[in-house]
Amino acid sequence: MHTIEIIDKLNLDDIKPGEKKNLWFAITENAMGTPIKIPLMICKGKFDGPVLGITAAVHGNELNGISVIQRLFLNDLDVETMQGTVIGVPVVNIPSYISQERYFQEGSDMNRIMPGKVNGNVSEIYAYRFKAGILSHFDYLLDLHTASFGRVNSYYIRSDMNKSSTKTLARLQNAEVILNAPPGDGTVRSAAEDLNIPAITIEVGNPNLFQKKMIKSGLAGIHNVLSHLKMIPDAPEIDDSNTKECSSSQWLYTDKGGLLHVHAALLQIVEKDEHIASLRDVFGNEIKKYYSPERGIVIGKNVNPVSPTGSRILHLGRLVE
Question: Mean of the pLDDT values across residues 173-189?
Answer without folding.
Answer: 93
